[in-house]
Design a protein that fits this description.
Elements: E1 2-10, H1 14-25, E2 31-39, H2 43-52, E3 58-65, H3 68-71, H4 91-94, E4 100-104, E5 108-110, H5 114-118, E6 127-131, H6 133-136, H7 142-148, E7 157-165, H8 166-171, H9 174-184, H10 193-200, E8 205-208, E9 214-215, E10 227-229, H11 241-244, H12 248-262, H13 278-288, H14 292-312
Parallel strand pairs: 1-2, 1-4, 2-3, 6-8, 9-10
Antiparallel strand pairs: 4-7, 5-10, 6-7
Length: about 325
């Protein structure tokens, strides 16, 4: 048996890509065929990832390019400036022979067998995912419901792990629907593609239990038996991770586990550049400086707010 997994990423997440797939390979009982949509990845980056995934359970490794021009119409946010996450819209088109795949974000520790997920009966649903931590810890979320107009906001899912029935995605032309909605509702999508996916796939998603996509903030221990999502703007491959996550758990459990897997890839011993502390400063500046579409989106929202005030008067 083989399991098809799909990911997307650019050069900023290379260590994350290496660890996500390597950890999946080390915990699988089936051959994994790996499909990566890359934005700006060099041939040398691809070669390094291939060598990182040299494992008895590694099947085929396919890289496909997506141009920045194809992604430029989508929204970036302060939380996630890169737009490469939107590439998941196009998995069915870019890899037309795939019938079903498991999509994985590039910031996961996959510490359970993906075979089990690949064999899940979707009961005629179009995808499967896990409720987002933001709603799993609440009894209601009126702000989320109001912003997106969801019928049941407590079913809002995190898109970092998804089982995708791609034959149905193609048949229903979901890529086109997702693109159109992402552009039409540009200013509403605070969580980028995740918001759009929740709107287009509402009532079409099988909800799975939390161990398939549990947040590092939930401090799972032991980690084994979980897919741990390293959510947040600061990742273990960033200089600032230990400074931000000062509790022992994050260093002794999350960071050390991530580093252990990383050291079994071609990135072993890798550390980010930080001469005279300038690397940490560069990371912070890159995070804080808004992109052009973030500025225009903010101006439009401010202008709309003034319009509402004048109408009320």
């Amino acid at each position: 048996m083989h399991v098809d997994i799909a990911l997307s990423g650019d050069r900023s997440v290379l260590p994350g890509l290496a660890v996500t797939v390597r950890s999946a390979l080390e915990n699988t009982t089936s051959q994994l065929n790996i499909h990566v949509i890359g934005s700006g990845l060099r041939e040398s980056d691809q070669d390094k990832l291939r060598r990182s995934w040299n494992h008895p359970y590694c099947g085929t490794v396919n890289f496909a390019k997506i141009s920045r021009e194809r992604l430029q119409s989508f929204r970036s946010t302060a939380y996630l400036k890169s737009k490469v996450a939107y590439a998941r819209y196009f998995i069915g088109d870019i890899f037309p022979r795939l019938g079903r795949c498991i999509y994985l974000d590039a910031d996961l520790l996959v510490l359970r067998d993906l075979t089990e997920a690949f064999e899940v009966d979707l009961h005629d649903e179009i995808a499967a995912a896990v409720r987002d931590i933001s709603v799993r810890v609440k009894s209601s979320d009126p702000a989320l419901k109001s912003r997106l107009g969801l019928r049941e906001e407590m079913n809002y899912f995190n898109s970092g792990f998804m089982i995708m029935e791609l034959s149905a995605w193609r048949r229903e032309q979901l890529a086109n629907k997702l693109v159109k909605l992402s552009i039409d509702r540009f200013d509403d999508l605070h969580s980028q593609d995740q918001d759009a996916l929740n709107l287009v796939l509402e009532d079409r998603v099988l909800l799975m239990e939390a161990s398939w996509n549990t947040s590092q903030y939930e401090k799972p221990e032991p980690l084994a038996g979980n897919i741990v999502h390293l959510i947040g703007t600061v990742k273990p491959w960033h200089i600032r991770y230990k400074a931000k996550f000062i509790e022992k758990y994050y260093e002794e459990v999350i960071f050390n586990t991530f580093t252990s897997v990383l050291n079994r890839t071609e990135f072993r011993g890798w550390t980010p550049w930080n001469v005279w502390g300038l690397g940490a400063y560069k990371e912070l500046v890159n995070q804080k400086i808004p992109t052009r579409d973030m500025i225009w989106s903010k101006l439009r929202r401010v202008a709309a707010g003034f319009g509402d005030v004048f109408v009320e008067k």
